[in-house]
Write a structure and sequence with these properties.
7 strands; five-stranded parallel beta sheet; alpha/beta; 41% helix
Length: 303
């Protein structure tokens, strides 16, 4: 069990993210984006970087040339593109070095036109939460031992972590605006991990039956916080969850966009190449809407 925990911490999210049919078509033909006519910067953790997806362009950060930032940049009229994402990143690594990687916010420039930010999972220690659930699931497959362990005496430590992370996300978004005041800022949520219907696939990932819907809800609470903080800071939230329903880690190869513990197309418990394609489509669609709204506001102000 200890070996399982260590493996999860080494290959987990380091997370410490449109309807399925519509999103599938969007991957083929994403709407043209109007934002990011200048410099596009991608910030985030491993769900942004794409560890394990070939080709890896940065061993320290697990960065792939098929991650959603790279795919997004290919569909945008950006004059320049910088991918600063790094596996294992927390909000602290926006302003502090991470191994050989400099602070991610250092990639921002006054002429940056678009910023995507995918962060928060590592701040609430999602990898540790999943590790505990796997260990306890082996002891009590039919109950909800993980949920029980986190809700003793009516205390909600996960809620506290999410709230505290929200304050940190606020600070990051405010600093992005200070450094790149003209940029459209998109906060990218996390795609589906466990099945949205609350079911589990114990033989694939040994999460107890009663813990599967609880874990699903932890992710939804994290995404809800990110959406609220984005709106409060003048940024736009990108929902990558809704369009990924039905492509969770329990689905077979070729259908799933999230890899199980023993990852085939990416590091385990991370989006695979198809998942990043879907996330890129969602980001491009949202960038187009944000850019169009900005253009309309400028034109209205000029009248």
């Amino acid at each position: 069990m200890l070996a399982t925990s260590r493996r999860l911490r080494n290959t987990s999210l380091v997370i410490a993210p449109a309807l399925a049919a519509a999103l599938a078509s969007a991957v083929v033909a994403a709407p043209p984006a109007h934002a990011a006519t200048g410099h596009y910067v991608a910030l985030g953790d491993s769900y942004t970087a794409g560890p394990g997806i070939p080709n890896q362009t940065d061993a320290n950060c697990g960065r792939s040339d098929r991650n959603y930032p790279t795919l997004t940049a290919a569909g945008l009229p950006a004059a320049a593109f910088t991918d600063a994402s790094c596996a294992g990143a927390t909000t602290a690594h926006m302003t502090a070095s991470q191994g050989t990687a400099p602070p991610q916010l250092d990639a921002l420039r006054p002429d940056t036109g678009l910023v995507t930010l995918g962060i928060g999972g590592n701040d609430i220690d999602v990898s540790g939460i999943i590790a505990r659930c796997v260990i306890l699931g082996k002891l009590n497959p039919w109950g909800s031992p993980c949920k029980t362990s986190y809700t003793v005496a009516g205390i909600d430590p996960i809620g506290g972590r999410i709230a505290a992370t929200g304050d940190k996300v606020d600070a990051v978004l405010q600093e992005i605006k200070r450094r790149s005041p003209a940029a459209d800022v998109l906060v990218v949520g996390y795609p589906v991990i466990m099945p949205d219907d609350g079911s589990n696939c114990y033989s694939t990932v040994p999460i107890a039956k009663g813990d599967a819907p609880w874990l699903r809800d932890v992710e939804k609470r994290l995404n809800a916080m990110l959406a609220v903080r984005a709106a409060a800071n003048g940024a736009t939230y990108v929902d990558t969850y809704a369009g990924s329903v039905g492509h969770d880690l329990c689905k077979p190869l070729g259908v799933r966009w999230m890899e199980p513990m023993e990852g085939v197309d990416s590091v385990g418990l991370h989006p695979n190449a198809a998942g990043h394609e879907a996330m890129a489509a969602a980001v491009q669609a949202t960038a187009a809407q944000a850019g169009a709204a900005r253009t309309a506001a400028v034109q209205e102000a000029a009248q």
